[in-house]
Design goal:
The structure is a single chain. With about 250 residues, the protein is α+β, with helices and mostly antiparallel strands. It is built from three helices and 18 strands. The protein folds into three domains: about 55 residues; about 90 residues, Sandwich (Immunoglobulin-like), CATH 2.60.40; about 90 residues, Immunoglobulin-like (Sandwich), CATH 2.60.40. The strands form four sheets. Strands 1, 4, 5, 8 and 9 form a five-stranded mixed β-sheet that branches. Strands 10, 13, 14, 17 and 18 form a five-stranded mixed β-sheet that branches. It has a four-stranded antiparallel β-sheet with strand order 3-2-6-7. A hairpin with a 6-residue loop joins strand 8 and strand 9. It is globular, with a radius of gyration of 20 Å. The two termini are about 30 Å apart. It comes from Peribacillus glennii.
Length: about 250
Amino acid sequence: MPQSEGKFFQEATVYDLLAKYYKYSRPDLHVHYYHNHLISLQNAIFHSKAGFMQPQKRFSKVRVLQGSPDSTAIDICFNHNPVYKNVPYQTNSKYIFLPEGSLLLDILQSNEKGPSAFSSRVQLMAGNHYTLVVAGPPENLLLEAIHDEPFVPFGETKIRFAHFSPDAPDLDIAVKNGDIVFKGLTYRNATDYLGLTPMAVDLEVRAAGTREVILPLEGIRFEKDAAYTIYLLGRTEKAPVLTAHMLSP
């Protein structure tokens, strides 16, 4: 085992022990040490040279997007372990490595004790990237696992849209005053990727089948060697207003 890999695994073990020690007496330290445990484990996996430990063979990469427009800040637990605290609306985490298999995700309203506001299981496949989108109103939260595809041919770019506005109709994505690029996007779904030459472009979000512009998207720049997902979050009838949250990849 390479020295750097062994160092990170050792750190991960120590942080895990500290997290368990403080789990009930000091929840703040429990979260701190468990988060460090995940980071050290991620570093160990990244630096591993042994074939059976390569991340693409046994691990997936996961991030979370808080897209519930009416929720206060939330806490997020993976397999009963707190990972993120006080996550506000329209905020996303960075990717972290997680082992393949079944992942239990619990969501709690921050600073509230008691049972989880929402729980869901997600099946993670090794070598894949996922964005876990928390959506819906606080009394009826839901989770969608969006499969990300970061690979882009050299010098190109690709884009797609995802619809997570609970009161918006089906949507068309079009060039400003022009042709439709993505047609009939429904709630809680994402389009396929569209490969493009890197560019800056004016787009608009329309009510499907009409010329009614719900959200103008002017001057969006798509850089080379990058994949983009534009998440449509918020509401059309009340605050928080409909907005585009762009993630790459």
